[in-house]
Specification:
The complex is a heterodimer of chains A (502) and B (385). Chain A has 502 residues and is of the alpha/beta class. Chain A has three domains: 199 residues, 3-Layer(bba) Sandwich (FAD/NAD(P)-binding domain); 109 residues; 129 residues, Guanine Nucleotide Dissociation Inhibitor, domain 2 (2-Layer Sandwich). Helix content of chain A is 36%, strand content 20%. In chain A, strands 9-8-17-18-19-16-20 form a seven-stranded mixed sheet. Chain A has a five-stranded parallel sheet with strand order 11-2-1-15-21, with helices on one face. In chain A, strand 12 and strand 13 form a beta hairpin. Chain A is globular, with a radius of gyration of 22 Å. By secondary structure, chain B is α/β, with parallel strands linked by helices. Chain B has three domains: 97 residues, Translation factors (Elongation Factor Tu (Ef-tu), domain 3), CATH 2.40.30.10; 123 residues, Nucleotide-binding domain of ferredoxin-NADP reductase (FNR) module (Rossmann fold); 90 residues, Ubiquitin-like (UB roll). Chain B has a six-stranded antiparallel sheet. In chain B, strands 10-9-8-7-11-12 form a six-stranded parallel sheet, sandwiched between helices. A five-stranded mixed sheet of chain B has the order 14-13-19-15-17. Chain B starts with a helix and ends with a strand. The chains are: A alpha/beta (502), B alpha/beta (385).
Chain lengths: 502, 385
């Protein structure tokens, strides 16, 4: 009988990070990936002469070599840092509200304040105090938790205890008056899939702090380069990966993992499983123990499946400058009502909600073939409205959405549409197809504080079973990679404890 | 987080209440098993088992297989897309992509039209062994060779070689049946007049619809043949379509046809981006492709060993995917023309020839991944599946 010390189900960011860390930690590990390529969201696809980046917009937490962020060390430990080439982005984003706002926030605190003051001179005090709050809040987080202060008290960390559970909206309302300023400062809300009213201030602060301190980055070769490097790290450390082979069942006995059955019917014994499949697929689909399934699902019963995306991948037959694209990351908003924008995510409408336009070639000119560039235009969409589109209307609806979106960006990037050579539209159903996630949600459940790991145990109630990825914590590259490494650490610790006990 | 910290955070009680309330009215996800797959299957089934409802003889060497689904409407597709037909022939399991020739409006059936080719492995099997009532295993509809209303002109110049006309039949039938605003010039190259499939239907449609111009081009006409002869040249195209501006070109046929026709189209000052080409399987003779190493002959034989698996023989002139299938190793495959990357695998040792322009991801190239349907062994290989 085949036996591995650990089996990782799914080769997304979390699964690969877990597998690489396990293999490098000396565990005999097997990765099962039902797709023919590693990465999950962290992948790319080719159309014509273009290779489209699927999901990586701005890598957070990396930092420069002389001022490293947490991700740099993590990638180093996974053995992939030296295999990757990173590209630093100069700016956070260009923020456009037609006729109202058009500014570009640099990736440094003083620069941001300067740019915001130019546009919103009346809000000087609020702007300075807000970024002061973000910084002081996050410094408290770092001292208390990253540096593991044994004594975390409200007296020592007043901002943390005061703001950790605040929503972002009430905080920006407290600091700013101009709705356009609020909109700009909260611009990153799309990266968390929740509007400021629902987005924890700590999450917005984390985004701002991480991008300002450690800068936004991109990767040469895109996110597939990261996935391939992690897969190589698994193999180099003696781990195994089976592509085009999914998991069918996690076999347990007495509440502990015993084996995994593959979709080819092969039973492979193991004591540890790291699931990078969604929490729903893992518990409702894979777990064979009815009682434990109930227990695990009870933990997430109040959670809501998060948003997915509609993405227009476009390959242009000209460099970015020809269509006036000057920034890698661009946000276009039409209204200051972010709650309404969020509500629109549950409709097919793309005529109003915010758009994110990422053109990697601005910071990495050889990202696309010479003389061309690519831009991914993204807007948040839940799966429901797309699931209601009759199958025979599906393609037409994709084109309709694409046309509307292109009409909206044309005034800001004149000539864009006429220069498109290749185009592909991905819908929430596309994400369902390639990720297998409910709602096609790359972000897992909606990221409310009440469902965060502060209130829910991310460890499934089965001995030997661990979860990794957005469904068990936070979404995004840095958080999912971190969660994979953490799952591996827990397993290696457990293994060595058993070893010592023997 | 330690409870003594957590409970002291402002708003803790509120969050706990929210959590409890939401759990009370929340979702029981336990019934969601398989739900995602079920939704996706309506559009993108991984595999379908379709019944051959009819076999229509198109020409002495080509038949249309009309496929119906035993369980409800077929997934919609865009005219120009294909399905891969998987079959077991002897001990070999393989597949071949066939463009759907029926219009996409019909969700009751798919037509694929198969033409006999020299040494055809799957085509011979389909043409000789498959009967009405048999079940064919297929992929869902796939491929990117279809009209895109945002990118393409409504005036379309279609160049077909032999059975390469099948995707265009779907496009033309769809447009004429539904009255879509499109104009077509269809150049259909074939060896002899009797081999041109769909000729009668196309002549009939062209006579009835002013937005279809049908130009069969016969390579070896019998004496006295009155139509266009030889190859599809720039001159012929210009004569028929006039100004090439504002027109999008679609081309589907064997590799030799691309080599001849694409320079011809480009000479009409058509920008490269306005020429869409369908992938059309491996060329007859790979060693004539640019960059093929002169020291390797097509019938040179090598050993391919699969890491942790068996070793199989392989020929330089044959795609690695074919060698694997012959050796009883089944890996996913779809387009079999280098494009879809389903047959991606990792080369651990040895060299392969990959035709220029095969769309392999940049980091895949760096990590030694190849598309095995468009990779030819140049020495003994070790691979990882």
């Amino acid at each position: 009988m085949i036996d591995y010390e650990a089996i990782v189900i799914g080769a997304g960011n979390g699964g690969l990070a877990a597998a690489a860390a396990l293999a490098r930690g000396g565990a005999r590990v097997l990765v099962l990936e039902r797709h023919n390529i590693p990465g999950g969201c962290a992948t790319s696809f080719c159309r014509g002469r273009f290779e489209f980046e699927v999901s990586l917009h701005q890598l957070s937490g990396l930092g420069r070599p002389e001022f490293p962020g947490p991700l740099r060390g993590l990638l180093q430990n996974l053995g992939v840092l030296s295999k990757l080439e990173f590209v630093e982005m100069e700016n956070l984003f260009r923020f456009i509200v037609p006729d109202k706002v058009d500014l570009t926030l640099p990736a440094n605190r003083a620069g941001i304040i300067r740019v915001l003051l130019e546009r919103f001179p009346d809000e000087k005090g609020g702007i300075e105090r807000f970024f002061d709050l973000v910084y002081r809040f996050f410094q408290e987080v770092i001292s208390a938790f990253y540096l593991r202060d044994p004594e975390v008290t409200p007296e020592k960390y007043p901002l943390y205890f005061q703001y950790a559970f605040r929503d972002s909206q009430s905080v920006i309302d407290e600091y700013f008056r101009d709705p356009y300023l609020k909109l700009t400062v909260a611009g990153y809300w799309g990266y968390m899939g929740l509007p400021p009213r629902l987005l924890a201030f700590s999450d917005l602060a984390a985004l701002l702090f991480a991008y300002i301190e450690f800068k936004p980055w991109h990767l040469k070769g895109g996110s597939q380069a990261l996935s391939n490097a992690m897969a190589a790290a698994v193999l180099d450390a003696g781990g195994e990966i089976r592509f085009s082979c999914g998991a069918e069942r996690i076999v347990t006995r007495d509440g502990a993992v015993q084996a995994v059955v593959t979709d080819r019917g092969e039973e492979i014994t193991t004591r540890y499983v790291v699931s990078n499949a969604s929490a729903v697929a893992t518990f409702a689909g894979l777990l064979d123990d009815g009682e434990k399934r109930k227990e695990a699902l009870k933990e997430v019963r109040g959670a809501v499946v998060g948003t997915s995306f509609l993405t227009l991948y476009t390959g242009l037959r000209c460099p970015p400058g020809d269509v006036s694209i000057t920034e890698t990351t661009n946000f276009i908003c039409t209204s200051t009502d972010m709650d309404r924008d969020f509500a629109l995510c549950r409709t097919l409408d793309v005529s109003e909600p915010p758009l994110i336009i990422s053109c990697y070639d601005v910071s990495d000119p050889d990202f696309s073939p010479e003389g061309t560039c690519q831009a991914a235009i993204v807007t948040m969409k839940y799966a429901e409205p797309w699931l209601r589109v009759p199958p025979e209307e599906y393609a037409a609806e994709k084109y309709r959405s694409a046309e509307t979106i292109l009409r909206r960006i044309e005034p800001h990037f004149p000539g864009f549409t006429a220069n498109i050579e290749e185009m592909e539209v991905a819908t929430p159903i596309t994400h369902m197809r390639y990720l297998g996630h409910p709602g096609g949600s790359p972000y897992g459940f909606e990221q409310h504080v009440k469902d965060s790991t502060l209130f829910r145990n991310p460890k499934p109630p089965v001995k030997g079973l661990y979860g990794t990825g957005a469904w068990y914590g936070m979404p995004g590259y840095q958080p999912t990679l971190t969660s994979g490494a953490a799952a591996a650490r827990a397993i290696l610790r457990e293994m060595s404890r058993k070893e010592n006990a023997r | 987080m330690r409870p003594d910290i957590l409970t002291k955070i402002e708003g803790y009680d509120r969050v706990v209440r929210e959590r409890e309330t939401c759990r009370k009215y929340g979702t029981d996800f336990s019934v969601e098993r398989g739900a995602v797959e079920e939704y996706v299957r309506r559009l993108h089934p991984d595999r379908m088992h379709l019944k051959v409802a009819e076999i229509i003889e198109e020409t002495p060497s080509a038949k249309t297989f009309r496929l119906v689904s035993p369980n409800g409407p077929l997934p919609p597709f865009q005219a120009g897309q294909y399905v891969c037909v998987y079959c077991d022939i002897g001990s070999v399991r393989t597949g071949r992509p066939y463009s759907l020739s029926s219009p996409p409006g019909h969700r009751g059936y798919y037509d694929i039209t198969v033409k006999a080719v020299e040494d055809g492995f799957v085509s011979d099997h389909l043409l000789n062994d498959i009967r009405r009532g048999d079940i064919l295993e297929t992929s869902g509809p796939e491929g990117h060779f279809h009209f895109n209303p945002i990118l393409h002109d409504r005036a379309l110049v279609l160049l077909a070689g032999g059975s390469g006309v099948t995707p265009f039949m779907s496009m033309i039938r769809e447009s004429l049946e539904s009255g879509l605003e499109r104009t077509f010039w269809l150049f259909h190259g074939d060896r002899e007049p009797g081999e041109a499939m769909f000729r009668e239907e196309l002549e009939r449609l062209a006579a009835r619809f002013t937005n279809l111009r049908y130009i069969p081009v016969i390579e070896n006409p019998s004496p006295g043949y009155g139509g266009a002869c030889g190859y599809i040249t720039a001159d012929l195209i210009r004569r028929e379509i006039g100004d090439a501006a504002g027109k999008t070109f679609f081309i589907c046929g064997p590799g030799e046809m691309y080599r001849f026709c694409i320079p011809e189209i480009l000479s009409l000052e058509v920008p490269a981006g306005k020429i869409r080409r369908e992938v059309f399987g491996p060329p007859k003779s790979i060693s004539r492709s640019p960059g093929w190493p002169v020291e390797v002959r097509e019938d040179d034989r090598f050993i391919v060993s699969v890491k942790g698996g068996k070793s199989i023989p392989a020929k330089a002139g044959e795609p690695l995917l074919v060698a694997l299938e012959r050796g009883g190793i089944v890996i996913p495959s779809l387009c079999r023309s280098g494009e879809c990357s389903q047959c991606r695998l990792k080369l651990l040792a040895g060299r392969v020839y990959q035709p220029e322009g095969t769309p392999v991801r940049r980091s895949d190239r760096q990590h030694g991944y190849i598309h095995s349907c468009a990779a030819y062994p140049l020495e003994d290989l070790e691979i990882l599946l």
